[in-house]
Design a protein that fits this description.
The structure is a single chain. The chain has 259 residues and is an all-alpha fold. It has two domains: 1-119, no CATH class; 121-259, no CATH class. Helix content is 75%, strand content 0%. α8 runs antiparallel to α9 and α9 packs parallel to α12 (225-252). The two termini are 33 Å apart.
């Protein structure tokens, strides 16, 4: 809620405070990281990284990185590099802001050692995934007549991704779920003669890999180099797998209508 309020307030600051707009991602992350660290003073079991990451779910540049990989894949090198650089810079500001907020609180109040609690049981996804699936088309300001199709496609995509990830590698889950979503979106597009992007874009947000990159950079800062590099690399792998799934889906069921 705090990040949302800041995202509304900062673009409307007076001209003499316009410099804040250039550092909005850092400000978001700093405030989120500071509050997450303050929470640990009273509750050591709070996972600072996870709380900060959850607060920054919207500004995470996973889609920008994916778009950059797509542009490079389709031989639009200049645009692809621009997207990749923008995404990495945004990710760097977010990680830096969260880390500075944590260090600031730790220097003032000396945070207790972390005592991470058990993770939320997977059964809770039955509640939160439908809420997320409903919220994404609203956030994208989708048409009323498209929302039901988007929710159904998001549910099918998530189910395939989760199912394949349990029995095979997570990259296979990402590929097959993206392949499935692209084919169904193109069938929808050919039937209604409307752009497949209308229903496909919110679905792909389920798949993007910004959170993996955030965790990887935080892990690198914490000194765990091998795991950090692996997580950052996985962000690019996931983006590439999504692009391959999109291309394969388009090859099997071409779309008639484009934006």
């Amino acid at each position: 809620m705090m990040v949302f309020i800041l995202s509304v307030v900062i673009p409307k600051v007076p001209p003499f405070l316009s410099f804040l707009q250039r550092f909005d991602t850092f400000i978001f992350a700093f405030c989120a990281g500071t509050l997450a660290a303050v929470a640990r003073i009273w509750a050591p079991q709070v996972n600072h990284t996870l709380v900060t990451l959850s607060a920054l779910a919207i500004p995470l540049p996973g889609w920008t990185v994916t778009a950059g990989v797509a542009e490079i894949t389709w031989s639009r090198t200049t645009a692809g590099i621009a997207h990749l650089v923008a995404g990495i810079i945004c990710l760097g500001w977010l990680v830096l802001g969260g880390w500075v907020g944590h260090v600031f609180v730790d220097s003032v109040a000396s945070l207790p050692p972390a005592e991470y609690a058990d993770p939320i049981p997977m059964v809770w996804q039955a509640l939160w995934i439908p809420l997320l699936a409903t919220g994404l088309p609203i956030a994208f300001q989708s048409s009323y007549r498209d929302i039901l199709w988007i929710i159904l496609l998001e549910g099918g995509t998530y189910g395939l991704n989760y199912g394949f990830s349990q029995v095979t590698d997570s990259n296979f889950g990402t590929f097959f779920s993206t392949f499935f979503a692209t084919m169904l979106a193109n069938v929808w597009s050919r039937h209604l003669e409307r752009p497949a992007t209308m229903v496909l874009l919110p679905v792909l947000v389920f798949q993007v890999s910004g959170s993996i990159g955030f965790r990887g950079l935080v892990t690198l800062i914490d000194g765990e180099t091998e795991l950090g590099v692996e997580q950052v690399t996985q962000m690019f792998y996931t983006a590439l797998v999504i692009i391959v799934g999109l291309m394969a889906g388009d090859a099997f069921v071409p779309s008639r209508s484009v934006l």
